[in-house]
Amino acid sequence: DTAAVAMQLRKDGLTPVFIREKKTALSGIKRPYAGVPLKEIALFSRQLAIMLDAGLPLVQALRILADQTPNKNFKGVLTKIYNDVEEGSTLSDAMGKHPGAFDELYVNMISAGESGGILDTILKRLTIFAEKLLKLRRALLSASLYPSVIMTVALGVIVVILLYAIPVFKSLFEGLGATLPLPTVIVIAMSNFVQSYI
User: Fold this and answer.
1) By Cβ atoms counted within 10 A, which residue in 18, 54, 69, 70 is the most buried?
2) Measuring CA to CA, which residue among 96, 89, 97 is closest to residue 110?
3) Helix and strand tally (H, E) in the chain?
4) Pick from 136, 131, 165: which is nearest to 45 by CA?
5) SS3 for 179?
6) Tell me: the pLDDT tens digits for 171-195?
């Protein structure tokens, strides 16, 4: 990985300007921990901020959170982060290895918090950001749910009319023997189609 390459280059007396990981055929495969829910990230950020604010060492706080996390995927991520930090890696570098859990914005904010010595403050801000994003997602979901329900009910009513009401009118129109207007012919054809295939 990039951290191992950087370490090896430093041992050789070289200072890398940047290191980019080469994409392989396996890089498109979804990681087993990808897609950690935002709710878990928000809770983790809040708890870590509180622990750091209370004076707990970062490594100890990470170990506690990794042990207490109920989500198995996220537990694996936190365990790897804890191991990396314990071995001397920065928190932002350790989190950067898990893009399925922590996006680039999150990692960069953590890096800024580490550089400025205000990691707990940054974590609180990230918590507020994640909670606002969650609230926005819920609002969008509830806003899109109402039209979906209305469309489903309307479609159900149309199918019921085509299955049961139109055949009654069809036999009535056939008894009259009159020439039917084009829209009526189309509705009867739709009714025949629905009866044949549904």
Assistant:
1) 69
2) 96
3) 9, 0
4) 131
5) coil
6) 887 777 778 888 888 988 888 888 8
Which uninterrupted H or E stretch holds 31? none
Residue with tokens 């506690």: 64
Whole-angstrom Cα distance, residue 68 to residue 105? Answer: 25
Distance separating alpha carbons of residues 196 and 157, to the nearest angstrom: 18
Residues 43-102 have pLDDT tens digits of 999 999 999 999 999 999 999 999 998 888 899 999 999 999 999 999 999 999 988 888
> How far is residue 189's CA from residue 194's CA, in Å, rounded to a whole number?
9
**Structure pTM?**
0.60
179 φ, ψ (degrees, to nearest 5)? -75, 130
Q: How far apart are CA 93 and CA 107, in angstroms?
A: 8
Judge whether 36 and 100 are in contact, CB under 8 Å. yes
Angle 70-74-76 (CA atoms, 0-180°, nearest 5)?
100
Q: Distance between alpha carbon 66 and the CA centroid of its chain, in Å?
A: 21
